[in-house]
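INPUT
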Amino acid sequence: MSSIPKIVILGAGYGGVLTALRLQKELNYNEADVTLVNKHDYHYFTTHLHMPAAGTDNPENARVNISKLIDEFKIDFVKSTVVQIRPQDKKVILEDGTLSYDYLVIGLGGEPETFGIPGLAEHAMSIRSINSVRLIREHIEYQFARYKLEPHRTDYLTFVVGGAGFTGIEFIGELADRMPLLCKQYDVDPNLVKIYNVEAAPSALPGFDPELVEYGMDVLAKKGVTFRIGTAIKECTPSGVVVGDNEEIKSATVIWTGGIRGNRLIEEAGFETMRGRVKISDHLLAPDSDHVYIIGDNSLMFNPEGRPYPPTAQIAMQQGVVCAHNLVASIRNQPLKEFTFSNKGTVASLGKGEAIGVAFGKKYKGRVASWLKKAIDIRYLFIIGGIQLVLRKGKFL
Amino acid sequence: MSSIPKIVILGAGYGGVLTALRLQKELNYNEADVTLVNKHDYHYFTTHLHMPAAGTDNPENARVNISKLIDEFKIDFVKSTVVQIRPQDKKVILEDGTLSYDYLVIGLGGEPETFGIPGLAEHAMSIRSINSVRLIREHIEYQFARYKLEPHRTDYLTFVVGGAGFTGIEFIGELADRMPLLCKQYDVDPNLVKIYNVEAAPSALPGFDPELVEYGMDVLAKKGVTFRIGTAIKECTPSGVVVGDNEEIKSATVIWTGGIRGNRLIEEAGFETMRGRVKISDHLLAPDSDHVYIIGDNSLMFNPEGRPYPPTAQIAMQQGVVCAHNLVASIRNQPLKEFTFSNKGTVASLGKGEAIGVAFGKKYKGRVASWLKKAIDIRYLFIIGGIQLVLRKGKFL
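OUTPUT
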């Protein structure tokens, strides 16, 4: 052990950034040595990725340089990819180096869950990073350009979104908004464009207020979306998807939003997982550990009714705050705090000027819900980067 | 024959548009019935396509609606694709109809000449229309997006331009200018990008002033272009090109600019052709015809030294003017005019602020040549659309 305890935070997503920011604030000078490790030198707003993916916003508005968020005099930043976590050795192997730790915070984020559907990993794209959404946006525009030279290929103008959860619905809203613009830009008849949303569950946005879900589906259907709810994707092929009763939807663009699972590095590290996620303690600690915290998409926590909390930005941020508190408490030999989730509400956007949401115990839809969504985004920018970040990145709002 | 002679103009390229504009001006009311046929409802500036292809300008700046150019009270416009020309029947078969004519002007433009190189037609793209350059631009951006998710695929960042003629050199200048911007946008190390220019002839820009060619290659080499002059492309494959001594250049993007040949419709119509082009009379008439004019890329004319004029916008425009004159003269039973090419000079751009050219018997390079190029573009906009068009489309200048 070094003279002062060494804290390593893996991942600068919602959980990792909040942990780092709170540590920066709460730790005294030389009380601990904090290192934040991230694959990219920027943090991105996962909840905003549906817009750059559809091309309705610039990807630059969905990320911020980590150097703009953290104080590099207080927290070291290492841009590298984590290759292996070795809890026994208290070490993390990076692509270009090794880090030792006394305390570890795993906030690495999840991976797309394909539920073993053949071809999905190979042929579908997913909305999970700046790089992946830039690919989706470019891929979509490329299909329009290709179609103009091969006008018999209507599959170039057919877009299949797998999954009608939060990401799927929000992405479809943007995609439907973008289509008329792309049609104009490429001289394409808008009637030729097809957007399918395929969801195996019996309803879109499972768990959401049914009245709002109905309203939302109505809004999207009017924008031209064809829903195939209660229909499973059987297979994804280079030429489209096979759904339900062996029906093929020919499409050059399949975007999978059907859920996420924990990061494979967690399993490989020897933690016991359920779909890659680790059931953590109320203090956010890994089982039987007093120094490894797991937060965000890789953590599994249950609500008072015994159902797992879905992996959201909201819970990851709240975990980050408690995680930082508990790290400081550990170092100071003070008692740890128990995490309790405080639901601030949920709003799903449906494209420009439309959204549905529940907040403060009330339902919202239409323009008001859409403002609420923007307020949530602004609040987040303010929390992590103050008014400067709101002014710089808030232009998309 | 109808009561008044019927003139059909096929193609609204440089030759067809100039013919139509001059006919509109010179014909008296009810002296002839003129129909312009074009695949698209817009005319595009072929000499400007290298910019939208590389993404350094918006494709909208390279086209103008035909309705903005011609007076539809004087000239009928039919948006359709020509399927067959039947000189014996004096008919043109369109994708959706048939047109009869007394006088025909064939200004259909050429096709890429692949010289029988295997795989070129299938795997290479070419700079020949608004649709094709939108594809190239989107394809290039897509490669950057793909690279970020498959960083071992350096072929995504390798760009091969086949042909160092006018189009090839001008495109490379723009492409080299665009690369640093794309690298910044996609967080790609600029050192990983490779641009190859492969040309079978012993020099770039054959026939151009050797001193200027050397200057131009120097400018482009400094921008990062690797020249492989005197090197033939043996084959184009899905994974790149095979050049010279069976060397493979792995590349996901091959753009072929190696020349154009006449339109296959011309051969199919029964005209005798050389590389798809018809040796026309000094009056611009097809062999043994007094009513079928062939201008632009499908026409073959020889200079006083007995060498064929290359197919350029400049010659097509001058042919259009004489063609219109001769049509009017025919109708009025006046003598036809002989075409003589008046070389106004040639300027090749090399990207932003750089060009090489010969005009008014003098050589120009650098910024002055670049201004000259802009002046030529402005002059053309003025000729076809007056000051209004200069102000509307001239913003790219």
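end of record. Residues 54 and 175 of chain A are 5 Å apart (CA to CA).
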